[in-house]
Amino acid sequence: MTFSHDALIFTPGDIDLAQSPLAGKVDAETYVLGAFNPGLTRLANGNLLMMVRVAEALRTPIHDQHIHAIRWFDGGYCLDAWPLDFVDTADPRKFMMRAAGWKIMALTSLSWLLPVELNAAGTKVEQVHYDKAIAPRASYQCYGVEDARISKVGDRYLMTTCSVSPERHSTTLYTSDNALDWTLEGIVLDHQNKDMLIFEGLVGGKYFAQTRPLGDLYFAYPPGSEWRSGPSINLASSPDALHWKPYDRPGIRPHAATMATARMGGGAPPILTPDGWLSLWHGVEPAGVVGIYRTYWSILDRDDPSVVLRTSDAPLIEANTALTDPIKELIYLDNVVFTTGIVDAGDHYIVASGEADLACRVTWVAKGVFG
């Protein structure tokens, strides 16, 4: 698909690690593995605000026959070491513990969130707010704060993040009146969930959210079903955005007719259009180390978001190697685009995505695409 504007807006080279929350607190050299998966919203001054995930990694994680990782602890940071014989390092983003009996992993980086202010069109960086960066501050975030999604409901900004720790793999909520000064409200989903997206508006007087619980076991659909078993996009409702009840009906499910969306999860927070809620989500086709990530869309009923009115069979946004070619020496994954934000801009939407788990991409999508 051709877009009137489609470009990388922020890359690892745009990060000043001297202003990182980790600066001077880790006894090792670090670098930016990725600056990606940005939450997106519009500020009161008309500019856009991206909340960028910065994955800060050790420059030399392997030495002395051990692999090392960064961990937040008691207001500071420390380094942990595991013998190489005990781990699998095939994925550059993480390492897996061998012979544990179940999947246990650690990360090669620690993530924190950086507010980056863009102009109203999303084509230029106006200011990087290092003084407003969000870093781990609780034991349930000791391995990082990841993948912000920002929704504005009424006059309040709501931001969900994934908080990572050995204690749990949870979803946490931040709230703000201006999208720059955030209050940590704590854990809102206790189960492993990577993609909680709060709808930008109430449904029947309640907050609604898309969720994506994960697991290693899924029950089979009956033979001949139109659906494929696996991770799906579920729904939940809440009276206050803090206490969530899973919705009884399913949300968006993988279709049996294609492998391109065999695994799926939420992308940008759903926004209301004249036709219903527009949901941008990602489908993952099994391939290589992590699969091929593409962005798809669905229109959901405004009164019952479990009802899918229409959906795309063809991807809306795909990975674009032409965009990352100028920074190709930094690439460690390919075929990945991960959409994480959307803002209305009149005759088009401004869509923010993470490209190759490396950089922030801004795409203008004409409203006519959605019929």
UniProtKB/TrEMBL annotation:
Record carries keyword Acetylation = no
Q: Which SUPFAM superfamilies does the protein's record reference? A: Arabinanase/levansucrase/invertase
Keyword check for Hydrolase = yes
Molecular-function GO term, any one: hydrolase activity, acting on glycosyl bonds
Q: From which residue to which does any coiled coil extend?
A: none
Q: Which UniProt keywords apply?
A: Glycosidase, Glycosyltransferase, Hydrolase, Transferase
Q: Which InterPro entries match?
A: Glyco_hydro_beta-prop_sf (IPR023296), Mannoside_phosphorylase (IPR007184)
The source's superkingdom equals Bacteria
Would you identify the family this protein belongs to, as annotated? Belongs to the glycosyl hydrolase 130 family.
Q: What is the protein name given in its UniProt record?
A: Glycosidase
